Amino acid sequence: MRRHLSFQSPDALIKYLTTYAPKHAFYSTAYYDNPGASIMAEKGWLGAELVFDIDADHLNTPCKKEHDTWTCLKCGMKGKGVPPEKCPKCGSDKLKVKKWLCEQCLDTAKNEVYKIIEDFLIPDFGISKHELSIVFSGHRGYHVHVLSDFVKELNQRARREIVDYLTGVGIVPKYFGFGRLMGNPAPSLKSPGWKGRLIRYLVSLSNDLDSLNFRWANILNKNKEVFIKALQSPNPNLGVIPRISESTWQEIGKFVAHHYSAKIDEPVAYDTKRLIRLPGSLHGGTGFKVMNISFNDLESYDPFSDAIFFRGELTIHIKESPKIRIGNEYYGPYNNVTVEVPMSVAVFMLCKGVATLELDV
């Protein structure tokens, strides 16, 4: 790890990167008076960007069961999906995990980006799209940088408050009118902040009540028409739903807050000296470009095509991999085969550690 570097010009940075060809490249989101100082206390902290890291690792995507794998290093047992804390066969906690990515992973991450920007930052914090920078991480997610001057000087505690707001920490449903306690009227769809957010998500949740294993979900499902009509009225009356107590409404509110909250890597957001992926560099785990994306281009952005850098063909030996899409084609699944593939596919497999280069001797 080479740290405490500063460059006087873009050309100096490019020269350094081409000379040393690092596997990963990061830059500090903090601004310093003397960024090249080798001791943090001597750098002179001036401020820092507020960054939200949205990673598929933090999202509950069913595709993980299809492409992520784990192997017990003690007994060799293998499995798919989210790894257990300990091997079911021998009880060892020494597990090797292999995480992959697919369209569903990154589409879900992209939806989280929209949620953070359109449902939180713009309406609740007054931040405009022009004050945001969106970056594809080169692997399993996106980074949203808030560049507004007013956030740069926020300390760690203030940033923690923002994180808590986005993630719904400390929400007490009764103060938002759930169950009509404390004399507060129930919120409506148009209510600002978390008030309206809770009601809007309840409406969308009505389509998934069948899949929820809760007594209250079954009651709401049986009274769905009355339930939705009540929520969509200017002054929702939650009391029209029978057999749901005041305490149950608090439980429902907390469930909604948890599932609608922003799914981010929290330490990244409240860190005032964070290192983050350098846009324009290549991700050492995929060979994909770390790319700036405008908000207007986000919807059409396709990481599996737009982030490809390498061209040409290469022969590699692939030990094992699931089916993946690179460009407009699908490759694999592979199991102990030697194949000639596009260079972008070869680099991806090599970076993932599942392939070796086949060289003519």
Describe the structure.
- The protein is globular, with a radius of gyration of 24 Å.
- Strands 4-9-8-11 form a four-stranded antiparallel beta sheet.
- The protein folds into four domains: 10-58 and 103-167 and 269-297, DNA primase, PRIM domain (Alpha-Beta Complex); 71-100, no CATH class; 173-260; 310-354, no CATH class.
- It is built from twelve helices and 16 strands.
- The mean pLDDT is 91.
- It is 33% helix and 20% strand.
- Helix 6 (193-205) crosses helix 9.
- It has helices at 10-20, 64-67, 103-125, 149-152, 156-167, 193-205, 215-222, 224-232, 246-260, 266-270, 303-306, 343-352; strands at 26-28, 30-32, 45-48, 50-55, 69-72, 78-80, 95-98, 132-136, 141-146, 275-277, 291-293, 313-321, 324-326, 329-331, 334-342, 355-357.
- A hairpin with a 4-residue loop joins strand 8 and strand 9 (141-146).
- It is an alpha+beta fold.
